[in-house]
Every structure is written in structure tokens, then in C-alpha cells.
Automatic annotation (TrEMBL):
It comes from Dyella nitratireducens. Residues 24-272 form the EAL domain. The chain holds residues 707 to 978 of 978 of the full protein. Transmembrane segments: none annotated. This is Bifunctional diguanylate cyclase/phosphodiesterase.
Length: 272
């Protein structure tokens, strides 16, 4: 009886595994097709100066215009795109398109940020590729900021630092994304050539829950540390006026979030 049960459980597991593999393979071939047919597009979320609500820049966020399933978000496909290595080709297409759009439509010279995954940073010539891409798209290097996560640094912090150093020497900035959710946060802050740091929305969303919670202490400490190191701070995921007010009163210089503006195609932000 136990043996039978065991065998049955094994069979069920096997089937689920096989189904999962089929799904992944199907998704991979769909991703390849989407790349050929240009189904990926950047949406842009404005990054505001909190003092006066001026748009300082935009974060480019990938969307997949799927012919059957509609607009897909990164959580629906980026993991599989990364595992299959396709994310590199997809990202380069998206980066170039984003830079082109910004070069054409950028009154007041806003900057653009995009999310660079660990795979890109493994290439020692990442900075060279970025510069060629900027040249093709006509965007000034000083208007680009790459977003990296602490997780992407774990692999090989030394070589990532070299790549970011070379980018900085030609004017391209770097931002540490999702700050506070990763590993050895503090050690990276002084050793990396960072222009900006993005406070993860987990901290921001705690800000309006009860007056003097731990979260505002943490945010104040992050701001003090960043400013001492000459790093600008962007708060992520601002959803309420109370969160915004708290951030302004603590001296946070920039922010983004649904309260201020949700990600949308560039045509939504700039009339063409
Ligand atoms: P991220 O870089 O931390 O991006 C911020 C995410 O928070 C975005 O989700 C954005 O739409 C969402 N968001 C913005 N404001 C709010 C808010 O007020 N409340 C809440 N709850 N969420 C808000 P999205 O677009 O789904 O992107 C998720 C993640 O996917 C990004 O996190 C980034 O790590 C990755 N990603 C996005 N675009 C790309 C890309 O082009 N290439 C790569 N490799 N990864 C990307
Ligand atoms: Mg980001
Ligand atoms: Mg983030
Ligand atoms: Mg995130």
C-alpha cells in the first residue's frame, strides 16, 4: 500500500515536471518569435524632483505586447528570458529603442534609467557596447543611468566595479536599485561609482503606517548615508500623499510611484 502510494506520488511529480519543461520550451520559442516581430516595448515611469514635481528622468520598464495575452509585465516572462539567455538580445533591443525615444522626445533633457541584469555585467565589454549603442541612438552619455541590483554585484563585484568605473569616466551614471532588500548593502555604497540609490518600495510603503515607525528611521539613515557619500536618492513606489510628505520632509530629492505617475508609453508623456 505504501509502496503503491509512493509510486503514484512519484508519477504525479514527474508529470508536473514534464509539463513545466514543455511550458518553458514553449515560452522560449514564443520569446524568440516576439523578438523577431518586435513585440517588446518600453514603458516609461517618470522620476520627479520631489521639491517641485519637475520630471528629472524616466525609468524604462519592459512590456511584452503579446498578440493573444495582451500587455505582459516582466514578472510574466523575464525569469525565463534570463534562464534561456534571451534577455540579452531582448534588453539590447529595448535599451536602444528607449534611448532613441528619449533622444527625440526629451525636452528639458531628462535622463533615462534602465535595468541591467547580472548577465550583462558578466561581459567585460558591456561599457563598450553601451557607448556604441548611445552613438547610434544619438543620446548624450550623461543622460543615461544604468540600474543594477545588489544581487547582480554578488557574482563578481570587482569586475562590475571596473565596468561601472569606465562608464562613469565617459559620463554614464549608475544607480543601485531596490536598495535595502539585498545582501551586504553598505559595503557597496562607498566602493561603487554610484550617482544614485533607489530606496526599495518596501520601506516607502511602511512610511505612512503609524507616525514614528522603524521605517522612517531606516529611510532617514539611508538618506544621511547617501548624502554623505554624494549619492542622490530616489524613493520607489510612492503611492500615498502621506508617503510623499514624509519623504519631502526627510529631504529625499527624487521619487517615482503610482501616486505621481504609472509606467506608460513615451507618447503618453510627450506629445509627438
Ligand atoms: P524595478 O526596477 O524595481 O522596477 C520597479 C517596479 O515597480 C516596476 O514593475 C514598476 O512598474 C513598479 N512600480 C512603480 N511604481 C509603483 C508603485 O507605486 N507601487 C507598486 N506596487 N509598484 C510600482 P515592473 O515594470 O513590473 O518591473 C518589475 C521588475 O522587472 C523591475 O523592478 C526590474 O527589476 C525588472 N525589469 C523591468 N524592465 C526590465 C528590462 O527592460 N530588463 C530587465 N532585465 N529587467 C527589467
Ligand atoms: Mg529599476
Ligand atoms: Mg527598483
Ligand atoms: Mg524591484
Amino acid at each position: 500500500q505504501a509502496k503503491q502510494l509512493g509510486r503514484k506520488r512519484f508519477a504525479v511529480f514527474d508529470e508536473a515536471l514534464a509539463k513545466g519543461m514543455v511550458d518553458v520550451l514553449a515560452m522560449e520559442s514564443e520569446l524568440r518569435k516576439a523578438l523577431r516581430q518586435n513585440e517588446f516595448e518600453p514603458h516609461f515611469q517618470p522620476i520627479y524632483r520631489l521639491g517641485d514635481s519637475k520630471v528629472m528622468g524616466y525609468e524604462a520598464l519592459i512590456r511584452w505586447n503579446h498578440p493573444q495575452r495582451g500587455l505582459l509585465r516582466p514578472s510574466d516572462f523575464v525569469k525565463i528570458a534570463e534562464d534561456s539567455g534571451l534577455i540579452e538580445a531582448i534588453d539590447w533591443r529595448l535599451f536602444e529603442l528607449s534611448c532613441r525615444l528619449l533622444a527625440q522626445h526629451g525636452p528639458g533633457e531628462p535622463f533615462i534609467t534602465f535595468n541591467v541584469s547580472a548577465l550583462h555585467l558578466r561581459h567585460a565589454d558591456f561599457d563598450v557596447r553601451i557607448l556604441k549603442m548611445l552613438e547610434r541612438s544619438g543620446l548624450a552619455p550623461s543622460r543615461l543611468v544604468t540600474e543594477v541590483t545588489e544581487g547582480a554585484l554578488l557574482d563578481n563585484p570587482e569586475s562590475v566595479r571596473n565596468v561601472l568605473d569606465r562608464l562613469r569616466s565617459v559620463g554614464v551614471g549608475a544607480a543601485l536599485d531596490d536598495f535595502g532588500t539585498g545582501y551586504s548593502s553598505l559595503s557597496y555604497l562607498h566602493s561603487l561609482p554610484l550617482r544614485m540609490l533607489k530606496i526599495d518600495r518596501a520601506f516607502v510603503q511602511e512610511l505612512d503606517k503609524s507616525g514614528s515607525g522603524n521605517s522612517s528611521t531606516v529611510v532617514a539613515a539611508i538618506l544621511a548615508l547617501a548624502h554623505a557619500l554624494n549619492i542622490q536618492v530616489i524613493a520607489e513606489g510612492i503611492e500615498t500623499q502621506a508617503q510623499l510628505d514624509a519623504l519631502v520632509s526627510m529631504g529625499c530629492e527624487m521619487g517615482q510611484g503610482y501616486l505621481l505617475g504609472s509606467p506608460a508609453p513615451m507618447s503618453h508623456w510627450v506629445a509627438s
